[in-house]
Amino acid sequence: MMFWILIALLTGAAALAVLVPLSRNRNALTENSSSADEAVYRDQLDAIEGELKRGLINEEAAEAARTEVARRLLAAHDKYHERSENRFDSRRLKAAQLISLMLLPAAALGMYLALGSPDEPDLPLTARLSAPAEEQSVDVLVARVERHLADNPEDGQGWAVIAPVYLSLGQPQSSARAYANAIRILGARPDWLTDLGEALTMVNQGLVTADAQSAFEQAVSMDATAVKPRFFLAIALGQEGKKAEAIDAWNSLLAGADETAAWVVAARQELAALENPDAIASQSRGPTQDDIAASQEMDADDRQAMISGMVTGLAEKLSTEGGPVEDWNRLMRSYMVLGEKQKAEDAFADASTAYADKPAELSQIKDAASKLGLPGF
Amino acid sequence: MIVEFGHYALVLAFAMTLVQSVVPLWGALTKDERLMAVAAPVSVVMFLLVLMSFVVLTISYLNSDFSVLNVLENSHSAKPLLYKFTGVWGNHEGSMLLWVLILVFFGALVGAFGGNLPSDLKATTLAVQGWVSAGFILFLLATSNPFNRVVNPPLEGADLNPILQDIGLAIHPPLLYIGYVGFSITFSFAVAALILGRIDAAWARWVRPWTLLAWCFLTLGIAMGSYWAYYELGWGGWWFWDPVENASFMPWLAGTALLHSAIVMEKREALKVWTVLLAIFTFSLSLLGTFLVRSGVLTSVHAFATDPARGVFILTLLCLFVGGSLALYAWRAPMLKQGGIFAPISREGGLVLNNLFLTAATAAVFVGTLYPLALDVVTGEKISVGAPFFNLTFGPLMVPLLIAVPFGPVLSWKRGDLLAAAQRLYAAMGLALLLTLFTFWLWGMEKVLAPLGVGLAVWVMAGAVSEIVTRVKFFEIGPKRGFARLVGLPGSAWGTALAHFGVGVTVLGIVTASAFQEERIETMRPGDTVDLAGYQVTFDGAAPRRGPNFTEEVGHFTIRQGGVHVADLDPSKRVYTARQMPTTEAGIHTIGFSQLYLSMGEGRGDGAVDVRVYFKPLITLIWIGCVIMSLGALFSMADRRLRVGAPKPAAKRKTASLAAAE
Amino acid sequence: MTRKQRRLTLIGSAGAVLAVALGLILFALNDQIVFFQSPTDITQSTMPAGQRIRLGGLVEENSVVRSDNAQVSFRVTDMANTVAVTYTGILPDLFREGQGVVTEGIIGPDGVFMADSVLAKHDENYMPKEVAEALKDQGHWQGGEETANQ
């Protein structure tokens, strides 16, 4: 509405520029217009006198020039009186007024409605990036975190937040880079190492490369019972053609596994393929391909849910059941990374209440909050 | 909302041009002062509206509002602030908006400061300016709308062409456009004069400040563009006879001719028919230039857009304006009365000579620029008309003109005395001869033309100085009174002298930089040294570096003269990340008026690079001369008699002079 | 001098200057223009040695050889025929293998094109206009019309 009012005002102002001169007093106008030609020639005569006085031209040349200019001056004088009778005609005036009152707004509005998109809002980049997270598409959220990370490349938690998102968006390369950064800054964690390996594997269309393999191995060395890294290591052995070792690996992985788990089906298929290569030769290679396909089939809503789910899930858990100090810190950090300062402050307040009677933990929380630059510190 | 507001302002400006095209002209033809009075306020409002939309587009760039298609296609959020700003006109749509802004700006100037103009001439001139504005705003809205929107825009834009990410871009197009488009107002004056049948000495006086203003900016714009190409493209050339350069050079040549013929018209009321035709031609060449650059018929670094719809639209406008004005001219010109008469040897004769050569030179450039296009269209045969063609045609035409330049201002009006004029130029001739011989002695006989060129340049410069000095009889009346008289000289006399002196300076720069340039191309490894023009250039090695939106390989070179350290130069090869586009950044060191110019080729892997080293003697004079020329134009504009404001009525002397005339 | 004589002098001098200008233009057009040729044009026609031409085409992949003193040699192809080119100097920023190039120079007696300038001016498609059209003639251009400024 505001827009239309402004447009109406602008059009009105423009129309006034036409209407005001049209309605001016006719006498004022005729008096104003003196003969401009005569002024020029009189000025030229002055200039001739000036040059003569300064000795730049001689008397003879000055006289010749003077005669010539005077002749022009006379002609202009006559012409002026001949043309200076003003003619006013009220019908003409009415027509001109009508043109400016009707044609101007009609042409402008008609054309604008054909060309413009009055309903499109402005979308300055900073405003788009700082709008509340719930209203944003995944792309915007990712861009926001990227922007934050470009300014704070040493924020390991930030990298850890964005890494799985990249993976679900089908950007394993970026995901691998983000996991690598998180590990470099915050130290190795088995789940990150596993995810890093998975991302690297996806970059190579399901081929477990040496980089990925070493990431999985490191993860297993930190947590010998982890299923996922061992799963990929088994695939790697199969891909290298070390058939016997691969079969051993699958068997040890499947031993004691919960038969209802989804990965078990895939593992059994792999194992069967190794033991019976001819029977299932046509089977597509490696379950990781399927994994990728599955994650890529997630539709936009799922991705949206995944992002907000990541944070809100944590928030919910902490508010209902409480949790360790690290989780509270992680929540605050996540909010900060997403640019939601208010929620981060709320989380800090909640955490402070939860640990009000435990000074050691409380100081840890305060430490984290001050590092995040929450107000009050 | 702001964006749409800017869009609406542009549309409303178009509607205003329709009113402007009709109402004041109607008033002028029916002698209705009230309708004529509409012209001035409407011209100002039109300018404000277009300014509003320009500001809105600028804001969208600064805010990286990618919902505007134009911003999305030509900007990037990581781009440095300055280039977000200048990027507004670094693309087709934005630069056309700037074009239109300047077009209506000149209309507003005439509307606001044209108080000394007769009301019918003012109204008709602004109406004609309104036609041109209507045509080009419609062009913007219909084919190149900068306010097209994108629903759900991406979060990052495509970035600006890296070649254009330079401070040169910030200054070059606005200057060039003020010049180019400024000639629209002389065009409008000419068409208005033809419509009203008032083509006389007074008309020439009213038009002259506008011509000077446009010419001044066009000179600066061309010089700036030349210097920009010189240091940004890394080829060490400063003029390529590229069609885009010619597109701005042709209006300059025609505009220069117009400036001179308008003097004759103003003083003697002669050459009326010719001056009006030149005014039409000058702007027609500006329009032609716009067509060549904006339609994409050329392929060159400047042509950032290709779209046939645009080409056809501009071509239609071009035919409409040029054809229409020429038809009007053919109808009206024969009715003009013969002006003042003059002998062939006279100031007027000199100015006619100037016009002849400048027009012939314009024609040569015109043929060289358009012949390949015409041949391609007609026969499909592809040819290139390069520097040799222009050197062979343009050069010889300039030589007699330059020889004649010092004679012009010392000849008297109506009937001149060549011998007396030559006597006043003896000193200048002597100096020119002396320097020619000196150059011969310095360089020997191997380059015969170069010393002659130096002599010619000195002749033009010394001629300008001696004209001023002999005019006030400086040596006859003694320095004290001489200085007083020099200060008392009218601004237009100083303007003439400065502009002519500037021409000499530019010619000197061109001759020395082309004839005595030294060049070495070497493959250099770290530690290698190249000797050039008495300087030792040592390559110390290259290292990578990161910029805000590019990465570069920077070479480090040390310049020594006889073992003494002179300067360090860091030329580089850049790659702009968003478009993966490489550019060369030259390293330039200025020594006096001369420059040492270094550019690097691609690295060879083993630390060696191909390096091109130039020594360009007195090259900066080329651009300094242009600045002096523009200063001359400013001096002329500041002349009391040419000032835009109304001259004071001298009521008493009026009767006296009228009596004297009778 | 009578008025008529003055007028004749004026018209005479104008005519003289314009005649000189026209002569210069015609002479220069006859002598100084350079024809654009594709490698196929060169192989098929027998051109007088020393004739200055512009050669345009694609820089053949893996054909660029750099030697010392900033010498470089490469081959220009239009997919049907190929011409070897030598050049001394710094190649323009946009010179790349597999992309369009225009070189100007003369054909040596050994059939090698000695270029004294190499241009890689082009539109957004990395293709000089002349080269694109020459390639279209040869039926090797699929760039199509998606040129509008992306």
Question: What's the SSE blueprint?
Answer:
The complex is a heterotrimer of chains A (377), B (662) and C (150).
Chain A: H1 2-22, H2 26-32, H3 36-53, H4 59-83, H5 90-115, H6 125-130, H7 138-151, H8 156-168, H9 172-186, H10 190-203, H11 210-222, H12 227-240, H13 243-254, H14 262-275, H15 287-297, H16 300-321, H17 325-337, H18 341-354, H19 359-372
Chain B: H1 2-30, H2 33-36, H3 39-62, H4 69-74, H5 81-86, H6 92-113, H7 119-143, H8 167-196, H9 201-232, H10 243-268, H11 272-295, H12 308-332, H13 347-379, E1 383-385, H14 387-404, H15 407-410, H16 418-424, H17 426-443, H18 449-471, H19 474-477, H20 479-488, H21 491-515, E2 518-524, E3 529-532, E4 535-546, E5 550-561, E6 564-569, E7 572-576, E8 581-585, E9 587-591, E10 594-603, E11 609-616, H22 620-638, H23 651-661
Antiparallel strand pairs in B: 2-11, 3-4, 4-5, 5-6, 5-7, 7-8, 9-10, 10-11
Helix pairs in contact in B: 1-3, 1-7, 3-6, 6-7, 6-8, 7-8, 7-12, 8-9, 8-11, 9-10, 9-22, 10-11, 10-13, 11-12, 13-14, 17-18, 18-21, 21-22
Chain C: H1 3-32, E1 33-37, H2 39-44, E2 52-59, E3 65-67, E4 71-77, E5 82-88, E6 100-107, E7 113-119, H3 129-138
Parallel strand pairs in C: 1-2, 5-7
Antiparallel strand pairs in C: 2-4, 2-6, 3-4, 4-5, 6-7
How many separate structural domains of chain A?
5
Round the mean pLDDT of chain A to the nearest integer and report it: 76
CATH topology of the largest domain in chain A: Serine Threonine Protein Phosphatase 5, Tetratricopeptide repeat
Mean pLDDT across the residues of chain C is 75
- Please identify the top-level CATH class of the largest domain in chain A: Mainly Alpha
Element-by-element helix/strand order of chain A: HHHHHHHHHHHHHHHHHHH
- Beta percentage of chain C is 25-35%
User: Could you give the distance between the termini of chain C?
Assistant: 67 Å
Radius of gyration of chain A: 41 Å
What's the quaternary structure here? heterotrimer
Question: CATH superfamily of the largest domain in chain C, please?
Answer: Nucleic acid-binding proteins
CATH class of the largest domain in chain C: Mainly Beta
Count of discrete structural domains of chain C: 2
User: What global shape of chain A is seen?
Assistant: elongated
Strand content of chain A: under 5%
Of all chain pairs, the largest interface belongs to: A-B, 86 and 83 residues
Structural class of chain A: mainly alpha
Number of helices of chain C: 3
CATH architecture of the largest domain in chain A: Alpha Horseshoe
